[in-house]
Design brief:
CATH class of the largest domain: Alpha Beta
Number of domains: 2
Largest sheet: 6 strands, parallel
Strand content: 5-15%
Shape: globular
Helix content: 40-55%
CATH superfamily of the largest domain: Alpha/Beta hydrolase fold, catalytic domain
Number of strands: 6
Order of helices and strands: HHHHEHEHEHEHHHEEH
CATH topology of the largest domain: Rossmann fold
CATH architecture of the largest domain: 3-Layer(aba) Sandwich
Strand order of the largest sheet: 2-1-3-4-5-6
Radius of gyration: 20 Å
Distance between the termini: 32 Å
Structural class: alpha/beta
Number of helices: 11
Length: 323
């Protein structure tokens, strides 16, 4: 469904640009005709710029180092390019290019698998670069499509359960789960269920609003309301996790950024007790293509079944350069 919606949006934008070009070419105004792509990018750029302005204003007393104006400008440009790649190409038209790689049950040697979970109004095409590399390495994986698109986060949990169960059965090992944005909340809701504490080898979240996000107050779908700071849904999730928080959270590595234009203030993308990693100068969607999360996935895929988790890092300090 998400692919179809984004196909319609992309094709409508291209049709509008073509109409613009045709109108001005007929009038002999070639310069104006050539400005059509720039006009479309300007609209997208303006929306993103507003998000970065809000990020700057809302930072307030957040302990994450405040991004400089030049860092925000660089992140804005990176996010503009990433948005075009992801929302106008990968997700609407290329989301099925890399089918899931699931080995036959009992195949030797058995390799640990990965489950990849996208976020709000996205689909599995978000992960195309990751999926290509996993296929080349022969690593089993399942990249889910979360539906219903705008329903409650709770309604998305069965999709993740199906993916984890499949890899468990076919590989005989608990998978590593990588989740972007809202996908990390789907993961936490699944993980909080009794009996799932040993079914996760490790979790990696990228820009997940673990403590909500200020921007969600401007959205009104069911899952967006659940991601608002102080939302009742987040409170219920935290309550379900309370009894096992200290034993479970070390299984999480949480990447966050002081230039995340969707999940802010920045520290809302961290979890107490988790290994929190700061990616300075990186925006929300662009974070997926940074090398650090990919390297973290490779590290955990190579770990033995019961690894010693790295020391949790709750300090909100820059420790990773932009890739």
């Amino acid at each position: 469904m998400t692919a179809r919606i984004q196909q319609l949006i992309t094709l409508a934008a291209l049709a509008l640009a073509a109409l613009w070009v045709w109108t001005f070419v007929r009038q002999g105004q070639l310069l104006w005709a050539l400005l059509a792509p720039l006009a479309l990018l300007s609209i997208l750029g303006a929306v993103l710029a507003l998000e970065f302005v809000l990020l700057r204003l809302v930072h307030a007393a957040d302990l994450t180092p405040r991004a400089t104006a030049s860092a925000l400008a660089s992140a804005w440009w990176g996010e503009l390019l990433a948005a075009v790649r992801v929302f106008c190409w990968r997700q609407p038209f290329k989301s099925q290019d890399y089918p899931d790689l699931v080995p036959q049950q009992g195949a030797e040697p058995q390799r640990r698998g990965a489950v990849l979970v996208h976020g709000y109004f996205c689909n599995r095409g978000l992960w195309n670069r990751w999926l290509q590399r996993l296929r080349e390495q022969g690593t089993p994986f399942i990249a889910v499509d979360l539906e219903p698109v705008f329903g409650s986060i709770d309604s998305l949990v069965p999709v993740l359960e199906s993916a984890v169960s499949t890899l468990e059965q076919q590989t005989g090992q608990a998978p590593v789960v990588v989740a972007h944005s809202m996908g990390g909340l789907v993961l936490r809701r699944w993980y909080a269920k009794p009996g799932n504490e040993h079914r996760l080898h490790h979790a990696i979240t990228l820009g997940t609003p673990h403590q909500g996000t200020w921007l969600a107050r401007l959205a009104f779908t069911v899952n967006a309301r659940e991601m608002r700071q102080g939302a009742a849904w987040l409170g219920c999730l935290s309550g379900d996790e309370t009894t096992t928080l200290h034993s479970r959270m070390p299984r999480f590595t949480c990447f966050y950024s002081n230039c995340d234009n969707i999940v802010f203030p920045p520290a809302t993308a961290t979890l107490p007790g988790a290994d929190n990693r700061h990616l300075p100068g990186v925006a929300h969607v662009d974070m997926v293509d940074m090398p650090q999360p990919w390297e973290e996935l490779k590290r955990w895929l190579a770990m033995p079944t019961e690894p010693t988790a790295p020391a949790a890092s709750d300090a909100l300090s820059p420790d990773s350069p932009r890739g």
